[in-house]
Amino acid sequence: MNEQDRVPQHTERRKHARYSIQAPTVATVGNREIWAFTKDVSTTSVYLRIEADETAPAAGDLIGFVIRIPPTMVATTPCFIRGQGRVIRTDRAAWGETGIAAEIIRFEIESSAATQDEDAGSDSTWKGD
């Protein structure tokens, strides 16, 4: 019997790829802004980390977000993922932070060039829902 036979195999059940991205984020719950960092992002969900002293949204709350993807990860300029989701759960994360898992209802990806060229009619926005 070899080593692989003795180790239980974990089967991935996710339908969409999840990316470990630590990027600054501004989340909005109602009229309140929460500064956060992403931990994981996919096309259907996002996991955010917030300071422990922040009041976390409750499961079921709608949450808006703007994630700034640094230029070193995508191109020479940053891009922004703007979207809306629904909080699935909150939990105690490492180092006294609170984790927020949210399913994404809709999102769009904007390059900083699109933000600067909106008046010029540039269409550098990709939308998903």
Give the termini distance in whole angstroms.
47 Å
Strand content: over 45%
Q: Give the helices and strands as they follow along the chain.
A: HEEEEEHEEHE
Q: Please state the structural category.
A: mainly beta
Helix content: 10-25%
Average residue pLDDT: 81
The coarse overall form would be: globular
How are the SSEs ordered, and which strands pair?
Blueprint: H1 3-6, E1 19-20, E2 24-29, E3 32-41, E4 45-50, E5 62-69, H2 71-74, E6 79-92, E7 98-111, H3 112-116, E8 125-128
Antiparallel strand pairs: 1-3, 2-3, 2-5, 3-4, 4-7, 5-6, 6-7, 7-8
Top keywords for this entry?
129 residues; mainly beta; 10% helix; globular
Description:
By secondary structure, the chain is mainly beta. It has a single domain, classed as Thrombin, subunit H (Beta Barrel). The protein contains 3 helices and 8 strands; from the N terminus they run H-E-E-E-E-E-H-E-E-H-E. It has a 6-stranded antiparallel barrel. The longest helix is centred in the C-terminal third of the chain and has 5 residues. The chain is globular, with a radius of gyration of 17 Å.
Characterize this entry briefly.
The chain is mainly beta.
